[in-house]
Amino acid sequence: MKTNQVYSNFEKTQYLKNKIFDAFLDGDYPMARAFVSVMLNLAEVEKGEWNYSNLIHISHTYLGLIHLAEENIEEAKKNLLKSINFKIGSPQLKSFGPNMMLAEQLLKVGEKEVVLEYLKKSGKIWYFIFSFYRLNKWRNQIRNNEIPDFGVNQNLHLMKQENLNLERRH
C-alpha cells in the first residue's frame, strides 16, 4: 500500500482482511496476528461508525481460529464471545448474521456451551427475517449433540476479496 495515497477505512478493512486470510491459510500465525492488531487499531478509529462491528467480528474470529490451531481452546472461546461483543451490528451483520467458522470448530472439540452463548448473543444483532429460525434450529441441533450445517455463515465476512488490489491503485 503506497503511503502517499488516501484510502477509506472500508478499503483498509478489505485490504487487511485479505492479508489476514492469506497469512492464516499459509499457517503464518505471527503475520496474521500482526494484521489483526492493525485491524483492531482501525476499529478504535471506527468506534461509533457502521464498520466498527465488522472489524471487531473479523479480528476476534481470526484470533480465535489462530488460538484453536495452536490448541489454546480457552483463548479461542474468549475470542468467539469477543467477536460478537458490541451493541450495534453493521448492516452486514444485521442482514447476513455472524460468521460461524470458529463456532463450528469449537463444536468439533466439544465446546457446545460457549457456542450456545454465542448464538444467543448473535440473536441480538442479527435482524434478518430468517435469523430467528436459523438460530433456533442451530441451537436445537447443538443441544442434540449435532454440528449444524451453518451454510453460508461458515465463511461469511472472512472470505477474501479477490479483485481488491490497493497496491496497484493509482
Report on this structure:
The protein has 170 residues and is an all-alpha fold. It is 59% helix and 0% strand. The chain has eight helices and no strands. It has helices at 9-25, 29-46, 52-69, 73-82, 91-96, 101-108, 112-122, 131-143. Helix 1 (9-25) runs antiparallel to helix 2 (29-46), helix 2 (29-46) runs antiparallel to helix 3 (52-69) and helix 6 packs antiparallel against helix 7. It is globular and about 50 Å long.
Structure at a glance:
With 170 residues, this protein is mostly helical. Helix content is 59%, strand content 0%.
Strand content bin: under 5%
- As for the number of domains, it is 1
For the sheet with most strands, the description reads: none
Second CATH tier, the architecture: Alpha Horseshoe
In CATH, what is the class?
Mainly Alpha
User: Which oligomeric state applies?
Assistant: single chain
Number of strands: 0
Radius of gyration: 16 Å
Q: Poorly predicted ranges (pLDDT <50, ≥5 residues)?
A: 163-170
Apparent shape: globular
**Helical residue percent?**
55-70%
**Secondary structure category:** mainly alpha
Mean pLDDT: 88
Key attributes of the depicted protein:
170 residues; mainly alpha; Serine Threonine Protein Phosphatase 5, Tetratricopeptide repeat; 8 helices; 0% strand; disordered C terminus
Would you spell out the secondary-structure blueprint of this structure?
Elements: H1 9-25, H2 29-46, H3 52-69, H4 73-82, H5 91-96, H6 101-108, H7 112-122, H8 131-143
Helix pairs in contact: 1-2, 1-3, 2-3, 3-4, 3-6, 6-7, 7-8
